[in-house]
Specification:
Number of strands: 5
Radius of gyration: 14 Å
Helix content: 25-40%
Shape: globular
Distance between the termini: 27 Å
Order of helices and strands: HEEHHEHEHHEH
Oligomer: single chain
Strand content: 15-25%
Strand order of the largest sheet: 2-1-3-4-5
Number of helices: 7
Structural class: alpha/beta
């Protein structure tokens, strides 16, 4: 999670929203890492989690069942679905999307569907762990507004 946070802070320094993600295989090796690229790419689908799943699939193929996704913020429905479709083994995240929404005064615009709810509805739940370094992952959002493309 510390590496994901480093990625998020580097993205923020470059004008992107402070989201960072990485995929780690069962041997503990980082397979791929990414940040949000919504501003650079001019595309709101370029979330960190989608970007990292895309990069890992390009490297390993569409089955990421040997991997765990680490992300600084609870994945939105698009990001959760991306990981779920790629058969990611589990997701570990820091701050909740609700906490980010509150910290930004509602300016961080996401569908705030809890990952636990999506996981329960998936029919094939993944391992889910939340709150890892939550306060440190939330700190970059305090007083920020999401970058527009």
């Amino acid at each position: 999670m510390l590496r994901a946070l480093e990625i998020a802070l580097a993205a923020q320094a470059e004008g992107e929203p402070p989201f960072g993600a990485l995929l780690v295989n069962s041997s503990g090796e980082i397979v791929a890492e990414a940040s949000d690229d919504v501003r650079r790419g001019g595309d709101f689908s370029l979330h960190a989690e989608v970007n990292v799943v895309r990069r890992a699939c390009q490297k390993l193929g569409p089955d990421l069942s040997d991997c765990t996704l680490y992300t600084t913020v609870e994945p939105c429905p698009m990001c959760f679905t991306s990981a779920w479709l790629a058969h990611v083994h589990g997701i570990v995240f820091g701050a909740s999307m609700e906490a980010v929404f509150l910290a930004t005064g509602g300016q961080q615009r996401e569908l705030r569907v809890p990952a636990a709810q999506m996981n329960a509805l998936s029919g094939e739940p993944l391992v889910l762990r939340n709150g890892v370094l939550a306060q440190r992952c939330l700190a970059p959002f305090q007083g920020t507004v999401r970058a527009e493309p």
